[in-house]
Specification:
The chain starts with a helix and ends with a helix. The strands form three sheets. Strands 1, 2, 3, 4, 5, 6, 7, 8, 13 and 14 form a ten-stranded mixed β-sheet that branches. The protein is of the alpha/beta class. Helix 3 (87-101) links the parallel strand 3 and strand 4. 42% of the residues lie in helices and 16% in strands. Residues 81-82, 84, 146, 175, 204-206, 251-253, 312, 409, 450 line the site of 1,6-di-O-phosphono-beta-D-fructofuranose.
Length: 570
Amino acid sequence: EKHTPLALQRHLYRPRCPPVLRGAFTVRRASSPQSAMDHDERIKALFPHVHHKPIVEIAFHDGEKPMSIGRPLRLGVLFSGGPAPGGHNVLAGLHDFLASRNISSSLVGFLGGPSGLIEGKYKEITEETLFRYRNQGGFHLLGSGRTKIETPEQLDAAFTTCERLQLDGLVIVGGDDSNTNACVLAEYIAARGGTTCVVGVPKTIDGDLRNAYIEASFGFDSACKLYAEIVSNLALDAVSAQKVYHICRLMGRSASHITLEVALQTHPNLAIISEEVAAHKQTLGMIVDTIADLVCERAALAKNYGVIILPEGLVEFMPDIKSLIQELNEVLAQAPARNGVAAGDAPQNPSEEADEANALGDPDASLVVIRRIAQRLSKESAELLSSLPSAFAVQLCMDRDPHGNVQVSKIESERLVAEMVERELEKRKQEGTYRGKFSAVTHFLGYEGRCGLPSNFDCNYCYVLGLVAGGLVENGCNGYIARATGLTQAPELWHVGGVPLTAMMTIERRKGRDIPVISKSVVDMAGPIFQNFKRERHSWALSDDYRIVGPMQFYGDGADCLTISMQIGD
Ligand code: FBP
């Protein structure tokens, strides 16, 4: 197989890491036992075996003691949740750690995410299987999934697999929920007298697994660089052709870190940040007005083009849409939602009626059903539903998950906003307050950001996290997450070690139950990253101060540059 010079360069890239990880190292205590972020007593009661442990750090092996070869270890690893660039380098780090300590060690990868562990589906990871995946994007060597390990049956099945395969360690590569699950599993295994040590690795492009202990999740740096490249290309298109507004929705369901970072990198005319929308209780109408005002102001300067970015999770942060969704969930969940039509029976309730209209693909029937659903909503929500472009009303009422809930991530908020702005501008035209031309092209920048080539940073970071996770397992750090700190410095200067997962936990009420969770970090509006954006954004609105970032660099100047928000920190 012939490789391009870049492909070859990536295959041969040797991740940089702190020198301590290159030789035999020890893991030592670096703090007193850590309390949970909040609700310490409740967390203690839930995790008696893994709570109140100290932070640990990796340090040079004490030179006076003889260097020892590690005992052979058998390790399992799985990817959980959405892919993020760099995941394969976690496997590479784990593999190389094991190989460096004892060549009789082995690494198994569970297929398709946590379900692979539950069902005992795995494959051995050897240098031969791994070498083509080093420094490459995707999670496809193993696959990933969103199954959770939380019910008694799932926990028991996971435990059984660990016992059957005699795993010394299990490394779970995931986001906040997956690491919460990792902690639950660590506790469960310890309580049953198992010896498998569960260790987490912080992953997610969304960047919302970040707290006092974890500086960054892997994947964020690469995904933002790719999205920024695309947004700045669209900005160049806008200013060149001078005829359209590019409206882009960027991934990140719960937090707007990606949108904020891409805004800082590319200087769009407008960037909407969900956390600010929620804080200022901005309704859909207010957001539509903000965009329409911008379009009018730019039109007055003869600029009928521009770039607007918004986060994937926006709809859930607008108070009016949020209440509408909550009400719809209640009305539509009156009967189990199903795909397709009730066999033979006449529709019984809104949920079934919606299914039927949807299955028939009849837009008029759908609208009749939506009108009927609206009758069961509060006055405000009914009015909002009927004011939405019909495609969105249909999307809200008909596209539901297996629990009957509205699938918020499927809502094309960029199209919703574009259509409503168009309507608003038409109104202003009639009133004589606007005379420009508005044409919007919408984009969703999502999945393409999760599997691209990892940046040098993510290659290094993931490899280091893999090595560290191996070290944590070897030292029996059950219920820990691997970490590296000082990430704005050169990798050779990073500090590495582990933090007990319970130290990052609190209790939150979700779906009517109090449960232990690792909280998602959302954009801190008082923090330096948002404040920096707030200071700058006004100058981006009318001027075309687009920053054209170009493709991610892998060598030469700028190749090791971090995303702006990681450089500023919160
Ligand atoms: P993770 O938190 O699992 O890393 O996934 C993040 C994400 O990429 C979000 O940005 C997005 O909302 C979601 O995954 C989409 O997930 P799915 O693959 O299930 O459509």
